[in-house]
Amino acid sequence: MGWVWLSIFINLCLAVFVPWADDDPFVGLEAPQDQKTILPPLVPPNKLDDSNRSLKKNGQIPDYIIDNCPLVHLYSEERYWPSDIAEYVTHFDIKDAQGNNVTDPLETLKLSSLQLNYYYKLFNGTYNNISSRDTFLTSRDDFDKDPKWLLGSRPEYGTGHIKNGPAVLMVVDKGNGWVDAFWFYFYPFNLGPFIMGYGPWGNHVGDWEHSLVRFYRGEPRYIWMSAHGGGSAYRFEAVEKVKKLRRRNGKLTPEIVHRPLIFSASGTHANYASVGQHAHDVPFFFMPLSDFTDRGPMWDPSMNYYAYVFDGEKIIPSSDREESIGVNWLHFRGHWGDKQLPWGDSRQRWCPVQWRYIDGPTGPLDKNLPRMSLCPRFVWWNFWKGCPARRLIKKGEGLDAEKNDLIGDNCGILLYKVKPRWLRSILRILTWRGVLCFVMDYFTG
């Protein structure tokens, strides 16, 4: 029996303590040799000039961006589907933090009513000049009763088209051949998570989510998907793809493209790269607070979207449709939903970590579009500002989780090759998806 234990010990050392001595599970998924050359740096939009621009200054959207638009699997039991921001705002007034009307409540709000600053009359007859950051879209209906406009629209079966739910595409020139394509997904309501059966907590009217596809000379290299205050970055070749016919000028062609697939979580609409249960906005796996994704109705944002190009100097509408609604609404920095309900409101509840209803979100230009990193921001403990792009999909947990050759181990290479399985199971129990797993997963991808 001694040789058995010796074999186990050696195997453990090679596979766990000296992971680089084991055969690398990521071999074969790395970038081709021509991608391993040193690529030029990204250029902040405010430092672009004619010598380093990646795009022409005409507002035209390159075809490769549409060819690589992510497809979104919405949750099969979703209640709040995507909607059109132009129709959405008609159900609101703009108010300041004190509840004063910034816009005329007798007029129907339009996207053109949204702007950077406001000059308006107060109850006492004086006038006030404030930044839109201090304003809220305030619903005219009781959102707690689910008015019809709050429910959004489901995608058509087969096509994935949502007639009343255009996405918003923001293309940002990052210079030296780099281009970022931000796809924004708008939902009229965010239904927060349940904690051990109680909730939902963290609900808010209006919900902006987005994904980023980063290109170099027309080739997609990376993809980032938002989830609450953070998100996940991947090498483009790592995420699951779906074969689709290429579209040109709204018409199908016989050419096939492989488009990336992301999964939108139930209620919260956080985006993930796999199916199953996902820890919600916490660094380690925590089952009582989770998001859930599945292969529900597929949404194809490329079939209906508002598109703009940011060339480092100005925002350029890409067609007459965008010209008609203008660009002022993009500069609105206020909240796209009601202010957090006061504690005395009968609709409000509180638990030790969250309120039932919180402030609505801010819009696309508040998501750090000029960023050089794939991540828009960093939590306090990420003092080195790391944002590694994963080489394998981070798998979901639970009964709905899927396992295949594209799915990586959430403990990275730390436990990937540990054999026999019973030993691997014991180590997983000991690490409990904790600090060790998290650190290894973060640095190995």
TrEMBL record:
Extent of the signal sequence: 1-15
Keywords, ordered alphabetically: Signal
InterPro entries from the UniProt entry: VPS_Associated (IPR053102)
Keyword Signal on entry: yes
Keyword Ribonucleoprotein on entry: no
A Gene Ontology cellular-component term: fungal-type vacuole membrane
One GO BP annotation of this record: protein targeting to vacuole
PANTHER family, A to Z: PTHR48220, VACUOLAR PROTEIN SORTING-ASSOCIATED PROTEIN 62-RELATED (PTHR48220:SF1)
The protein's name: Vacuolar protein sorting-associated protein 62
Protein's organism: Zygosaccharomyces rouxii
